[in-house]
Amino acid sequence: MNADLDRLHPYPFEKLAALKAGATPPADKSHIALSIGEPQHAPPKAVVETLIHHLHGLANYPLTKGMLALREAIVAWASRRFQLPAASLDPERHVLPVAGTREALFAFAQAVVNRQVPRRPRVLIPNPFYQIYEGAALLAGAEPYYYPITEENGFLPDFDAIPDEIWADCQLIYVCSPGNPSGAVIDEAGYRQLIAKAEQFDFVIASDECYSELYADEAKPPVGLLQVAANMGNQQYRRCVVFHSLSKRSNLPGLRSGFVAGDAAVLGQFLKYRTYQGCALPLPTQFASMAAWSDETHVRENRALYRQKFDAVLDILGDTLPVKRPEAGFYLWVRTPEDETVFARRLFETQHVTVLPGRYLSRDVDGHNPGKGFVRMALVAELKDCIEAARRIRELLG
Question: Which domain holds residue 344?
């Protein structure tokens, strides 16, 4: 077996299950899960109807590269959303459909990391982080370097704090903006700084932007990596690749559909890898995806639903916990009044509410774990359930 499989950590939800083992929650309170980021809003009706209408396409093998019409729809959406220069994003060279960002984020490292170098290559990962980044790095034969995402820095990466000797060995960096779990957004200055580092030290940026459409202020959508690259005059998007998904944007986690876009040379090699990997989107999925990327009404309605939840939950918890509305995403990243694992187990055992301890999303580095003392609460349940969960948390805190 691949020896690197033994380097993989248990997934956060395995640790959570172990934490809850033996706890008996009150039978008179229904379970409310705030632990997993699975959207619960209804998927767009028109997208579902499109999927059903094209089910006959299951009789055909799909192309790994996807239909040109789908790639054109993706280019049209990304160009509008991120104000990209006309024709700078070529559907033939700069875009690939993928089976959701999880699959693509993992596969990308397998294609990008070059093991044939004198020293072990590094993949830089935010800490806390989406665990796929770490698994991708380990199974690509790279050494993860965890750069801290801390409250002191507004839950944003401090690229200047990373030593030059680390940058020198870096082949790939994962960034997540809006961030999971904090919801913090990297601004244009931050992306400019990172792109300059990539040019100086010759590495690829993988920007996970799957929460980019769940923002608090309609007048202030989060900036994207390709948008900043274009603003810098890098209209070939050298060393820049973004990852987008319909899961959060359009409440379609089961569709398993997204895209990667950016550097044509990198994506050309990634397409070669994917041709062997075999993750082409079924034709019905491609048609449904075209319908989703072509409509913004359901996305605006989706954002409004999340705003209602944040309004209600923050109103209940605002004077009991140090909580504030994130810039984007659907998580609350909350500092707890006690050890977060103790807090999470007590909350489940007494209130039948599940949250995710922060240390399960992060790693100890030099004796410090930036996730300790926090829990992640995903406001994905129905509004009434989010309100009830907030009331139960308030009750736990007295």
Answer: 3-42+298-397
* Pair (348, 238) in one structural domain: no
Is pTM beyond 0.85 here? yes
Strands 95-98 and 122-127: unpaired
Contact 218, 304 (CB under 8 A): no
Helices and strands (H, E) in the chain, number of each type: 14, 12
- End position of a domain, from candidates 263, 279, 295: 295
Residue 342, H or E segment: helix 340-351
pLDDT digits (tens, 9 = 90+) for 124-133: 999 999 999 9
The answer to whether residue 49 sits within a structural domain is no
- Give the Cα separation of 235 and 41 in Å (integer): 36
Q: CA-CA distance, 376 to 155, in Å (whole number)?
A: 14
CATH number, position 131: 3.40.640.10
Query: Mutual orientation of helices 383-397 and 297-317 as an angle, nearest 10°?
Result: 20
Neighbours of 308 (CB within 10 A): 14
- Mean pLDDT, rounded, of the chain: 97
β-partners of residue 335 are 374
Q: From CA 281, how far away is CA 266, in angstroms rounded?
A: 20
What does the chain come to in residues? 398
Instruction: List the beta strands (DSSP E) in the chain.
Output: 32-33, 95-98, 122-127, 143-148, 170-176, 204-208, 240-245, 258-262, 331-335, 353-354, 356-357, 374-378
SS3 19: helix
50 is a domain residue: no
